[in-house]
Design a protein that fits this description.
58% of the residues lie in helices and 16% in strands. It is an alpha+beta fold. The chain folds into 2 domains: 74 residues; 107 residues, Nucleotide Exchange Factor Grpe, Chain A, domain 2 (Roll), CATH 2.30.22. It has a 3-stranded antiparallel β-sheet. Strands 2-6-3 form a 3-stranded mixed β-sheet, with no helix packed on it. The longest helix is centred in the first third of the chain and has 77 residues. The protein is elongated, with a radius of gyration of 49 Å.
Length: 203
Amino acid sequence: MSDKNTPSDQEVVEQTIEQVEPAAEVEVEEGQLLSAEERIAELEAALAASNAKVEEQQESVLRAMAEADNARRRAAQDSEKARKFALEKFAGDMLSVIDNLERGLQLADAENDAIKPMIEGVELTMKGLMDAVAKHGVVQLDPVGQTFNPEQHQAMSMQESPDHAPNTVMLVMQKGYELNGRLLRPAMVMVAKAPASGIDTEA
């Protein structure tokens, strides 16, 4: 006959179940927590990758905008240069015409009444031609008295002169020209140099 205080088999099973169930719940909660942390890590990694891609795309857009802006600027500069210097060859060809008119005026006898009307006509033609080319940016270089500038002048000779500072343009043999600041033709000039010091070698 069993003792009344001795638990029955059913009671033992129930107690065992009660002890096991909390442990199982803890294991489930820990598993769920681990799974949630892994999911958070995955989401954070995906967010970081998305942010990196957005930044990369933003940089690509900025680069494309900068390149487009540079292309527009270059196109505008090229167009402006083309506009300014489209007449460069034509203007260069006109220089020989201007030179011939100038030489004709220099050689003409201004005291000869018979050719004075012709001289006046050539002078008017010369003035009209110079005004016309000036409207398109052609500028004459007549550097007499200026300091020699190798970027604009071509020295044909040098001569001692007590009346001119050394390296000064004494004479222009052929005038130079610029087109919108670009040299079309250098001026051909004679440049002054300091007189040689006289040294008396006699005893």
